[in-house]
Amino acid sequence: MSEDNPEANQKQVTRRDFLKLSALGLGTLALKPNEFSNTTSDKEPTNLPEPEDLLCVKLVDREHPLEQSFIKEEIEPELKPLSQFSPEGFLRRADVTGKVRIHSLVVQPLEDLLIASSIAGVDIKVRSGYRSWEEQELIHKREGEDNKTSMLPGTSQHHTGLALDFTTLSIGNVAKEGAGFEKTREYEWLVKNAWEYGFVISYDRGHDGITNESWHWIYVGKNVAEYFQALRKNGWESDVFDLQKAYLEKRTSHPIRPERPVGGGGKYKLE
Ligand SMILES: [Zn+2]
């Protein structure tokens, strides 16, 4: 293991993983080519697909904060620490702090993403996942209330357990401004492939003219990510927050079916 030669280290890990995956017969599965099954001609979000879970399309931002009780009662019981998984497995090895917790909805998709990216020879790690109200409060205080990108407790996508900060060894396993994640092969791989596993980037193309975070991605479910990808391909310029806003508006005028979401037992509300 050498910090000075991350390339060599990456290759070692990759070859070992690939051998293991080949033995499991998983290599061909994860190597299937990217294909759109969603052939929407939508140029804006009008024919929204059913979300896997309403939490996946829940808008969380400054104007739509989560309540502290929602985070405690609805999200926290669903959290899975990556450290609980097998040390040999991809999930635990991707956790660079040993403290990352994610929503149960993301466990399988994240593992699939890690396997596929590892086969492709890139080294994706996870710097952070779920963040509690108290943790966000500390960050907000530390960054200072005047900082334009500092977010109040309740307003961070990390509270859902569906947002992840990705990183890689070649930038020192950090996820922050100036670290250069956007210049890595890992970022390039995510841009091309993450939608296939249900992940989309939150802040790109100057989301609000201030925030631009190459490392911050959110799980919206495969069909929604695929739809989002198709919209973008058709020239839609907006971001995932706008897509979630469209779900919120649809919810207000016509209820999204099924009323009881598949994964969440009907407990999430969009409002
Ligand atoms: Zn983040």
TrEMBL record:
Instruction: Please give one Gene Ontology molecular function term for this protein.
Output: peptidase activity
Give any Pfam family that matches: VanY
PROSITE patterns in UniProt: TAT
User: What are its GO biological-process terms?
Assistant: proteolysis
Tell me where in this chain the D-alanyl-D-alanine carboxypeptidase-like core domain is found.
Answer: 101-222
Name the NCBIfam families for this protein. Answer: TAT_signal_seq
Name recorded for this polypeptide: D-alanyl-D-alanine carboxypeptidase-like core domain-containing protein
